[in-house]
Amino acid sequence: MGEFELIRHYFQQHSAESTPASVLLGVGDDAALLQPPAGEALAVSVDTLVSGVHFPDDAPAEEIAQRALRVNLSDLAAMGATPLWFTLALTLPEASDDWLRDFSRGLFEVAEAYGISLVGGDTTKGPLTITVQVMGSVAPGLALRRDGASAGDYVLVTHTLGDSAAGLASLQGRLEKAVSEDVSAYLQERYWRPTPRLEAAAQLAGIASAALDISDGLLADLGHICAASDLSAELFIEELPLSPALQNATSQDQARQWALTGGDDYELCFTVPESRMPELGALIGTGALQATVVGRLGTGSGVHCTLHGEPYDSQQSGYTHF
Ligand code: ADP
Ligand code: MG
């Protein structure tokens, strides 16, 4: 199959089936023609996944596609933006039909689930690399930026942390404990198919003062909010939300370490002024939002961890980084 037949068969036909009105012209021409919603800002983000660096060399094609699009959608969620369109630059060592079929199935499954349309891309030969660029829209005043936080704001995270690092350890046979199939399946799914927190982000518009998605671990990513907002943070280690599966799979110390530095969770870390905490509490109370207070911002700089009020050195907690 030649390059153009490949594009037509695996990407163009499928994307044409679900083209929304905002796509005036999609895959197939020199450029796509897109119509953003009137008055909204365009949120644009790109992420590259390299085989052997961002996922194991022997990863299934469907999971690579799932992960590539999901991590990009997470960036739109972290900005408070609604997904609209994406492009795909694909570098392949060979044009394998089986691989492309599985990859495009995974890709369009996610695209349909989150209402985002493939509008173009590029296909080249070389070491397996997947670049996805996502575009979404957000009212300019409601974008969830990193630089809007103030001293005294609470720090929260959605759902649970550390699952993805445990999932990768499970995939690579590095878990220290034997776990049930249910537990390893849950953790591995958290690694391969992170959930972009678009619904949570929609609830946070007008409430959160700053937000980002946790790709490098809470410690590093909260550091980005602190740096952008010119503040410090205290992180309450005993409050870190850890899933039952994670606690089942490893020691408390290791679980906390993964939650802090494991990365790949794609949960949201966001800050909320004290005055908006009642509204936020109501969202959590009704089950509309799953989030946990894990810290508080102050003046100064850097992220400082405490365990029940005592200083906690995340680097000396008994775990050596892999
Ligand atoms: P050009 O030479 O003008 O850059 P290409 O041959 O790269 O055109 O691509 C032809 C058309 O196919 C373009 O509309 C491009 O957006 C689309 N395309 C190429 N590769 C992909 C892909 N992997 N996924 C989706 N669309 C693609
Ligand atoms: Mg091209």
From TrEMBL:
Residues noted as binding Mg(2+) 5 in the record, renumbered to the chain: 216
Domain PurM-like C-terminal residues, every copy: 151-302
Enzyme class, first EC level, given as a word: transferase
Binding-site positions, Mg(2+) 4: 30, 45, 75
Residues reported in the UniProt entry to bind Mg(2+) 3: 30, 75, 213
Transmembrane segments: none
Tagged with keyword Transmembrane helix: no
Positions that bind Mg(2+) 1: 47, 122
Residue sites binding ATP per the record: 121-122, 146, 215
Reactions the enzyme catalyzes: thiamine phosphate + ATP = thiamine diphosphate + ADP
GO molecular function: ATP binding; magnesium ion binding; thiamine-phosphate kinase activity
Sites where the protein binds substrate: 54, 264, 319
Associated pathway: Cofactor biosynthesis; thiamine diphosphate biosynthesis; thiamine diphosphate from thiamine phosphate: step 1/1
Function: Catalyzes the ATP-dependent phosphorylation of thiamine-monophosphate (TMP) to form thiamine-pyrophosphate (TPP), the active form of vitamin B1.
Name of the protein: Thiamine-monophosphate kinase
Organism taxonomic ancestry: Bacteria, Pseudomonadati, Pseudomonadota, Gammaproteobacteria, Cellvibrionales
Gene that produces this protein: thiL
